[in-house]
Structure formats: structure tokens, C-alpha cells
Amino acid sequence: MMLFRQLIIPALAGLFSLQAHAADPVWDANTVNLAIEKIDNGVYTVYDDRAHDFAPKGLPLATSAGVIVGDKGVMLVETMLNKRLHQQLLTLVKTVTDKPILYAVNTSFHGDHSYGNYLLDDSVTLIQHKNTQAYIQQHFAKDVDFMINTFGKNRGMEQVTPTTADILIEEKGALTIDLGNKQVQIKDFGFAQTGGDLFVYLPKEHVVWTGNAIVAQKPGLPWLLDGHLSDTLTTLTSLYQALPQDTKVIPGHSHVVDKSAIKWNIDYLAEVKQQVTQAVSKGLSQEQVIQKVKMDNFRGYALFDWVHPALNVPAAYQELNTH
Q: CA-CA 20 to 30 A from 108: which of 82, 118, 182, 211?
């Protein structure tokens, strides 16, 4: 499916370029401000301070992060896009604890989640999926170019250098870190968006960071950047079934929500699969399928008119059209 990603990247860059001149807000790493919210004792989420206003309207937001404080020290979930946001994150950490940062986890290779790695102190243990590290090692320069084209020049990405992880999670692997009175489970549930997706879960506190497997709350939609509709649906279903009903969910780009955010994504992908399968069985072309599979009942996301017809439906068609 890497070919599919290569085909849609120019369209994605074009989308953000057009939006930068439109009325719809696109988050700017040079101006966005982060806020921190306590979820439980020693458990905090960090997110775009516009999230409570923007997320319910389906508007794009900056990357969310996590701060987990145990007796021994701190774990960061994500390291942010550039130096400005990374330093904001560290400043917010200092408002809640003076303990040292011991670990940092990237939920994927995406630059807005991982580019801050090069700013970490050498004493911090970096944790990634093995596929995330492989992607960074093989595609870093091209990825930086893509991110600059997407989020704009002079946003601090020109200075980013690749960082080698200290601990790698294998496919379908898991790791438990004891922070001292805080048990953190880091797990690969399967392909969710990148093939190197990690979920960070606190079993005692019932809190999970999903990264971009769940981009945002309803009406936000998943992005099938690398295809794998069926695998993504299976992974999100497994995740949903594994989590307690009262789990607090932190999507990749939103404030804390509940499990209904995961269910919304599952329902959307299931309907995409059903409708595209039916259309393919009638011998329709990709263009005809795009026209037929409107799914207006899932509207509300500011990027719907690009993500659904130009990305997700074509991805589903390429996977499900076996003839």
C-alpha cells in the first residue's frame, strides 16, 4: 500500500496549501498554544488550547500528547512537531512535577508526533514500534519535505534530525513500563494507520492514548493514508472490545473523550466497507464508486469532502476490488 500513499501525498499537500488561504483554520505550529489537563493522579493530557471549541465542530487541531508521572519519573507520549511545541510541552510538564523525564513514546512515525525526538535529553529512553523506526530510517528526508509542504516552511522542521529509538516494539508486541506506582502498557493492536501504531494504556486509571488511529472525536474521521481498510477496522474493533467502558480516550488531535470516539470510527469504516463492497459487486469503476458512496450521515468533519471521497473511498476500492 506504500504506492497508494505516494499517490495521495500530493493531494494531501495540495489540500493544506489551499486551506492555508481559505477561511477554514489550519493549525500553525508557530502560533498554536498547548494546554494541560489532569485526568487522574499523575496523569495528564496536553492538547491544542482551542480543542474544546474546535473538536466538536470537526475543525483541525494540533497534536495531542501525554504526561504520565510516577514515583520514579515521567513518561511523555509524543514529542511534538517542532522545537516551539516541544518546549511548550516541557514547560507544561514542569507545572505539574519536578521529576525527571525518563521515557518518551511515539505512537507513530508522523512528524507532528515524533519530530521533537531530537530535542530529548540523552537520558530519556525513546520507545517506538520497529516499523516506525524503519520508516524514519528509510524515508526521513522525503518525510520532512512532505511535512514542510503540508504545514509550511519556517515552522522549525528544517532543523529536525532523525533519532534512533532505544526500545522497539515488535509487530503485535507489548511492553509494560513501571514508573513507580504507575504501570504503563504500550501495545501494538495491529495496523491502525501506519503499520507502526502504538497505543499507550494505563490499566489502573483506564486511560488510553490512541495517536492517529483515532484522529479526533466525532465528527472527525479516520484517514486511510496507507489503505488497509479491513485491517484498520479489525484493529479498532479489537481495541474497543479490550477497553473498559469508562475508558478515557485521548485521540491524536483532540482533548480527552470517551469510547464513543472509537465506536464512531468503527461504524464509519464498517459502512465504507459495506457500501464499497456492494458497489464493486455491481462492477462499478472507482469513479462511479466515489460518486455512489456519499455517506452524508457521517458529515460534519471540516475535511470530509477530501478525506472521504478522495482518500478513504479510493483506498477501500483498491482493497476490495479483487477483479
A: 182
What Å distances lie between residue 212 and 111, 140, 282, 289, CA to CA? 12, 19, 33, 26
51, amino acid identity: A
Rounded CA-CA distance 208/281 in Å is 38
C-alpha span between 44 and 133 (Å, rounded): 26
C-alpha cell of residue 189: 493492536
CA distance 286 to 74: 48
Q: At what angle do helices 313-320 and 229-242 cross, to 10 degrees?
A: 110
- Strand, coil or helix: what is 217? coil
d(CA 241, CA 259): 10
Contacts of 98 (CB under 8 A, 6+ apart): none
pLDDT digits (tens, 9 = 90+) for 230-265: 999 999 999 999 999 999 999 999 999 999 999 999
Q: In sequence order, what are the beta bridge partners of 113?
A: none
Residues ≥6 apart with Cβ < 8 Å to 85: 29, 32, 34, 62, 63, 116
Match 458529515 to its residue by C-alpha cell. 299
Please tell me the pTM assigned to this model. Answer: 0.92
Q: What is the pLDDT of residues 115-172, one digit of tens each?
A: 999 999 999 999 999 999 999 999 999 999 989 988 889 999 999 999 999 999 999 9
Q: CA 92: distance to chain centroid?
A: 21
Residues paired with residue 65 on neighbouring β-strands, in sequence order: 46
Tens digits of residue pLDDT in 158-198: 999 999 999 999 999 999 999 999 999 999 999 999 999 99
Reference 126, options 167, 87, 179, 174; nearest CA is 167
- Cα gap 107→42, rounded to integer Å: 20
Query: Rounded to an integer, what is the distance from CA 93 to the centroid of its chain?
Result: 21
